Amino acid sequence: MAIGTPLTPLKIKITKDKKMELITISKTQINGAEVNSANSREIYDYLEVVTPYSMWIIRAIERYDFIDGIDFTTHKFVNGKATQIDYIVTLDMAKELCMVSDTIKGKETRKYFIQVEKQSQRVLSIPEQIQLIAQGNQIIDERLTILEKTKKLEYWQEKSLQDAKNAKVYSVAHDDKKLATVLHRKIWSLFKKQFHLPRYSELPAIKYEEGISYLRNLSLADLVA
Prior knowledge:
This protein is α+β, with helices and mostly antiparallel strands. The protein is 55% helix and 16% strand.
């Protein structure tokens, strides 16, 4: 479905005195009503996500149970010879996409969408505001818990695990290359067994410090058992 006529864009201030940025808010038919919406590709570009756009948005839809026709609609267009798909999302979905990004830009962009909603909605009563705040806090807690438990190791964390493993190997093997080869395999085998992993790199980021501590505290008895 095509995007509707854009509203007057609002500007949001970015930290560290960077230039003002904006995201266009449009009217789009979603779930049988004309609602304020945003193109998730603009959100993606603004948040400077590294993952390819289509992978990022599809993963978010699957992980957080967004529903086609209720939380978003799609807009297909031809770009050169290729057909691309933009996901046009409600402001509620837009706020959640920003929230789970867990970045400064994500927080700033979420405030922007909240500001847009304030311009278009009636003033809520005190009891309604309290209820919305309570619901919002619960959603935030649930999303952050999911994010924390599923967040993967960053490159520097993987490298730190490798460095800790190497340090342990060479503290025992010294210049014995054959022994070093055996210990490399032995340590990763123990590590994967300890954390119930098929590969050491799949250790959740939340357990990074525990993983480093485990590698550093391996004893000679552990390695020769």
